[in-house]
Amino acid sequence: MSAVEIEGLTKRYGDVTAVSELSLSVDRGEVFGFLGPNGAGKSTTINVLLGFLDPTAGEVSVLGTDVTNEPQSVKARVGLVPEAFEPVPNLTGREHVAAAVETKGADDDPDALLDRVGLDPDDARRPAEEYSTGMFQRMALAVALVGEPDLLVLDEPSAGLDPNGVQLVREIVRAEADRGAAVFFSSHILDEVERVSDRVGILQDGELTAVNSVENLRDDLGMGSVVSATVDDVPDLDPLRAVDGVTDVSADGSTVRVACAAPGAKMVALRRIDEHATVADLTVEESSLEDLFEAYTTDRPGGDDTATDADTDGRPAKGSGPEAATVGGERA
Amino acid sequence: MSSATVARTDFRSIRRSYAVVGVVVAFAALSALVFLGSGEVHPHPVRTTFGLSALVAWALPLFLAPLAYLAVAGDRTRGTITYHLGLPNTRAAYVRGKYVTRAGVAVATTALGVAVAFAVAFATYEHAPDPGRFLAFGVLSTAFALAMVGVFLAVSASVTSRSRAMVGVVGAYFLLSAFWVGPLPVLNLGTALDAVAALPGVGLSDSVRALISSLSPAGAYFNLLPELVWADAPGEYAALQQFAGRPDYLGYEPWFNGLVLVGWVVGAPLVGYLRFRAAELG
Questions:
Q1: Do B85 and A90 touch (CB under 8 A)?
Q2: Contact A47 B85 (CB under 8 A)
């Protein structure tokens, strides 16, 4: 049974469509990164998941329960870090966590949870409205962890956190997933999402343009990696361009850059360079999630001519972009 | 269970606010002043409850409004509502918890004010205060305060911004208290009914006017006081005797006014919940 099952979700506000025909599923024990530019519909989707908003159309099931009919039974098994909320005035961080423990009927020790998220015990007894953003996020994460939820919904959990805090969030997310919880994870820190997510979904203008692992998204967009070789003398680049799997070759001073869509193309290209020049230095950069995100949400190369590249099953051909991206065998 | 948790959380929050202490203390101080200033003029404390009733009807809602208008709207504006409703609290439990805390403050404020008035009367008046009359006055005043807090909470639960909550609460106060049974010479219900009655073909009998006047919390409150607090009061004060021999209109019947007041106490927060239940939060 999926932890989250969304089928044909549409949410409209008057004439504005915030989310359109969104379908995706998240399995138990999976970390799902939910990405998209501001206004793409991420928060709307999360608010529907939690029963804060009713869908205009479609079905949303969380942990096997229809969230529109039984939001309470769903919320008892969900931990939430909402985006941009303020604390209850005059309440300490510990009291926020203790109230969550009481509401969920859990037997968690609030101090242990606060210790797990790295909030100092003295700070935990200060009013939460005095917290820095990072301290507040730690408290919110402790609230979300109450009762060992089966689904964690984290909306920008690392906002305002220092690098140690970001690392801590990553560790907690992985630990929760290892425990069997599903993690629905929205963040603007793409590096963080890339490191922690099993799969990512990219939302743009209310529509899901891609769902897959970062690796598969790279393959699908032909944005595998870039080999940069520093050479004594730049060779003829045409033999490099002829290598199967090489998508782009350029030279800048004594550096030759070869973009490889296929993993096997890297060594072949490197041998070609080595045949005609002495390689003094070498780096290999994989395209980041940021590159993929840009490709799926802007009109960068690889994202324009997709309709003609898509095959008859609706799956994108190599080098195709977001508009036709029913990648990874999932509906997108 | 979750309703109690919301209420407890909310109570912890507001009791640490100086505003709550200020409201409770300020109303108690004003109640004491009303009685301290009238002891030599009216030797019977019951006469001074006439003046205190005006303080209850026109000033007490203004004291309670700042504590109530952001009860729900403030949480929505700050996003704090996602903390409460992200936990397994139903919307009904959330609104109930919010109402319980605000109602608790209203009850404490009113009860303390009346208790202080009783104590001052006991200590300084020529005639001892009648505990029964003060108890009835306290119960009626508390019911009125609860009705107004219910209205304010309903407004707060129905809007999405602080400014709308403030405008709505001030508007509700003005309409239901100041305008309906208020001291303003022109801006009041009587003038409005006169204007309606002056229209060609429209006539308003005294019984209909009495009925309409009783339909607000303040109207019902003022209609109940003569029967339950001031009836057969000692001292033959004209202010209290003016209500003797009122016509047998439905609008003056204690049971009807009691029903109106209970209707506001129960109905207002219920309407607020029904509005909130269907609200889109996000």
A1: no
A2: no
Label residue A70 by pLDDT band (50, 70, 90).
Answer: confident
The answer to whether residues A209 and A255 belong to one domain is no
Considering the domain architecture, whether residues A212 and A229 belong to the same structural domain is answered as: no
Compute the distance between CA of residue B217 and CA of residue A141 in angstroms, rounded to an integer: 45
Domain count, chain A: 2
Per-residue pLDDT tens digits for A192-204 = 888 889 999 988 8
For residue B277, is pLDDT > 50? yes
Q: Is residue A321 part of a domain?
A: no
pLDDT-based confidence at residue A304 (cuts at 50, 70, 90): very low
Q: Which residues pair with A212 in a beta bridge?
A: A200
Best B1, B8, B9, B21 member to test A by mutation, with max A CBs in 10 Å, is B9
With 70 as the cut, is the pLDDT of residue A300 above it? no
Q: Which chain A residues are Cβ-neighbours of B89 within 8 angstroms?
A: 75, 103
Is residue A305 assigned to a domain?
no
Q: Which domain holds residue A262?
A: 224-286
Clarify whether residues A174 and A54 are in a common domain: yes
CATH of the domain at A84: 3.40.50.300
> What are the CB-based long-range contacts (under 8 Å, 24+) for A130-136?
A131/A87, A131/A93, A132/A160, A133/A159, A133/A160, A133/A161, A134/A160, A134/A161, A134/A162, A134/A165, A135/A93, A136/A87, A136/A160
Determine the Cα–Cα distance for residues A46 and A272; give it in Å rounded to an integer: 50
CB contact under 8 A, A91 and B280: no
Domain residue spans of chain B: 2-277
How far B165 CA sits from the closest chain A CA (Å)? 18
Same domain, residue pair A239 and A267: yes
Calpha distance B91→B243 (Å, rounded): 44
Q: Which two tokens stand for residue A219?
A: 């393959």
Chosen from A85, A136, A150 to mutate, greatest number of chain B CBs within 10 A: A85
Tally the C-alpha atoms within 13 A of residue B42's C-alpha that lie toward its C-beta: 23
What average pLDDT does range A119-130 have in this prediction?
Answer: 95
Name every chain B residue with its beta carbon within 8 A of the beta carbon of A47: 281-282
